[in-house]
Design brief:
The structure holds two protein chains of two kinds. By secondary structure, chain A is α/β, with parallel strands linked by helices. Chain A is built from five helices and five strands, in the order H-E-H-E-H-E-H-E-E-H. The longest helix of chain A has 17 residues. By secondary structure, chain B is mainly α. The chains are: A alpha/beta, B mainly alpha. Chains A and B meet through helix 1 and helix 2 of A and helix 1 and helix 2 of B.
């Protein structure tokens, strides 16, 4: 009876931690990563994509990589969005939301700035064009670090 | 109350399982699924009519069922 109780407690405590896993940062070692979570139904994402494209074009040579993770349940919706914006930066697909769960996405869109050592440093919820310069300043700050 | 080992374990189990309700609602990225027409509370007119009739017979009143929109939750 007590062994069963102990098993139940352990299962209840450990169960939620199963699926979430971080983004594999090995391909981006030494680079600053702008990790963005977007979806086709998210209005502000239509504004953030051109901004991210400009950011990627400007700072790619200095060590910035933009990774945009799509959270659409339906891949076709994401493809339609991508067809409209045609980004040159990396796009990943996470329909189950495991990556979003790991980074504790609180709203759409969200972005996480990861420094050259793979440590997440800044998190932003939502996107407004007027915040673009503040975000860019943070990107520059992380790029300046070794 | 004699504070024995089994009571302690049951208390611990209860506390651990009670946290299961702490994540009610959908995740922010699942809002597109929640916004679909099939997911509306009044999506099925027959079910809605039956529920309304049952509510009327129990409460001796009806209506008050309009729901305000919530937006997409972005920003």
């Amino acid at each position: 009876m007590t062994r069963y109780a102990i098993f139940c407690i352990c299962f209840a405590l450990l169960a939620p931690a199963r699926a979430a896993a971080p983004l594999d940062l090995d391909p981006f070692r030494g680079r600053v990563v702008y990790l963005d979570f977007w979806a086709s139904w998210c209005g502000p994402c239509k504004q953030s994509f051109p901004w991210m494209q400009t950011l990627a074009d400007t700072y790619a040579g200095r060590g910035l990589t933009v990774v945009a993770v799509n959270l659409d349940a339906d891949r076709a919706d994401a493809e339609k969005f991508l067809h409209q914006f045609r980004p040159t930066f990396e796009v990943r697909f996470d329909p189950k939301g495991d990556l979003a769960a790991f980074y504790q996405v609180k709203g759409m869109p969200s972005s996480v700035l990861i420094d050259r050592h793979g440590v997440p440093r800044f998190t932003h919820v939502g996107f407004l064009p007027i915040d673009g310069s503040a975000l860019e300043a943070q990107v520059q700050e992380l790029l300046a670090e070794k | 109350m004699k504070f024995d080992r089994l009571s302690f374990l049951c208390l611990l189990a209860g506390a651990a399982l009670a946290s299961g309700c702490s994540s009610l609602g959908v995740k922010p990225w699942q809002r597109d699924v929640l916004a679909r027409d099939e997911m509306r509370l009044d999506a099925n007119p027959l079910d809605a009519a039956i529920d309304d009739h049952m509510y009327f017979s129990k409460e001796a009143s009806s209506g008050g069922r309009s729901y305000a929109g919530g937006g997409c939750g972005c920003n």
